[in-house]
Amino acid sequence: xxxxxxxxxxxxxxxxxxxxxxxxxxxxxxxxxxxxxxxxxxxxxxxxxxxxxxxxxxxxxxxxxxxxxxxxxxxxxxxxxxxxxxxxxx
Length: 90
Description:
Layout: H1 3-28, H2 33-43, H3 46-53, H4 56-66, H5 70-89
Helix pairs in contact: 1-3, 1-4, 1-5, 3-5, 4-5
């Protein structure tokens, strides 16, 4: 297994989830990003927003599979698992 591709896939998965979360906050709240994140964290919805942001990883996963980057796709799956566990802790 190529560890470099796996780590790249993991990083892509984490960054995609962050991007999805930020897009969700920007789209569905009237607040700026920093205020929106603080408000969501205070209300206890941060884990749910991270989970919603993780849905973009599905598209990344499918794109990687179509381009025959199975090892990177495994890294994305690991990122989703790590984020799921972290949302349980949050």
